[in-house]
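Handout for the seminar on molecular recognition.
Each group receives one record of this type.
Step one: identify the two inputs.
Step two: read the structure output and locate the region that could contact adenosine-5'-diphosphate.
Step three: write two sentences on what you found, then compare them with the reference statements printed after the record.
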Amino acid sequence: MSLKTRLLFFYTSLTTGIVIFFGIAAYVMTSINLSQQMDQMLAETAKNVIDVTRFTNQGTLEVIVNLSVGDNVSVQVWGRNLRLLAYTGNISNLERPMDPLGLQTAAPIFRDVIITNAHMRVYSVPLLVGDRFIGTMQVGSNMAVIDNTLDELFQGLTVAALVGFLAFLVSGYLSTSAILSPLESVRQAALEITQTSDLSRRIPYEGNQQDEVGQLVQAFNLNLSRLERLIETQKRFLADVGHELRTPLTVIKGNVALMRRFGELDDESLTSIVQEVDRLTRLVEDLLLLAQAEAGKMPMARQPVDMDALILEVLQESRVLAREKVKLIVGDFDQARVCGDRDRLKQVVINLVSNGVKYTPKGGEVHVSLEKNDEQALLTVRDTGPGIPPEDLPHIFERFYRGEKSRKRSRDGSGVGLGLSIAYWIIRNHDGEIKVQSEVGKGTTFLVNLPLLLPGKECISDVSLGRQV
Ligand code: ADP
């Protein structure tokens, strides 16, 4: 059963049930009320008649005042031995008591009887003089008016319940359709996206964005965006890795062919082969490291590391890279000891400094500084390069993410968009934080915080696995 049918069924039965319940309650209460009024009227009439009824000297009953009772009321006074002593009102069959059973009653009683097809309510009152039973008075009234009223009420309520039921059915159908129709369009759009594999599509929703369906659509669209970006970066990664793998392999193959042709080992060719193999090895190691980091299994040593010495070492090595292209400038420089894996931390500094050198055009500067406060070491790598566009900024720490411009660059030793992602994981695994600030045209600053190894404290050396962040 569809959700719509279930909702419709539930609400229609609920509301119809409520209407029927109140209808029955109204009918029963009206019926009781009218019966009570009738009984009260019969009892009052009986009392009035009894008040004006006396014994004659002969021991018979006699109504001493002319009775005036309503048109609809009849009174019979029966003596013992079924003798009709007095009567008034419109009784068609005088020979018979209105309620034969009522004549035998020892206490006043109301009963419903049928007299020649007419529904009558009869009140029978035994008449006593002292303890002596001398007869029974019966006061009766036709119930046609009450019965008609109740019949009309019943019909009215039945019609109202039916109309209500239909109204609930129609309005329920319309409102559930209105509520659920956006879900139908969500389903349609989701199906079309699956069929066409077009992740750039979004599900349109014109209703209130804050209602449940609006939020569902937003969440779905958000997921689509994530999925689209993920697949896009995977595609780029495949293309980039393919390119990165093919180029060194082509160089190696070319050099080997050259040596084979000349039948001797050429030093230059061998150096080039070694360089390309190193390059391939680095790429594969980076990929492996990221895979381990994402699985929460990054191998990590925990030893005291002097960040100042480490950074100077990297700067020394990077001077070759920077050559006369950019100026490497050392800013404020404190001594700072942290706890961690020296090789991994060195990798972070290399990635940041080499990015600065790589992306800063000729004549630019890369400033490196190391400061500390009571608890943390703060490494800053600032360049005067082109900056990172705001749309790239939230993604640069994602694996395989490369800015549009970087992807268009020719092969210049740039990586495949893994450097910052690796740096991010390494720093997170050292309980630190890496942030970026950048302005297009002005430059980029990377800030790395690491907890200091405070004097007197030791590294917990048995932690060898990184953790999932
Ligand atoms: P890669 O350098 O191999 O492309 P990274 O992960 O190191 O990958 O960097 C990701 C992206 O961030 C780069 O493609 C580039 O667009 C941008 N980026 C990183 N560092 C800088 C920088 N110093 N200046 C400008 N852009 C940068």
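Reference statements: The longest strand covers residues 118-129. The pocket of adenosine-5'-diphosphate is lined by residues 351, 355-356, 359, 383, 385-386, 388, 396, 401-403, 406, 414-421, 444 (CB under 6 Å).
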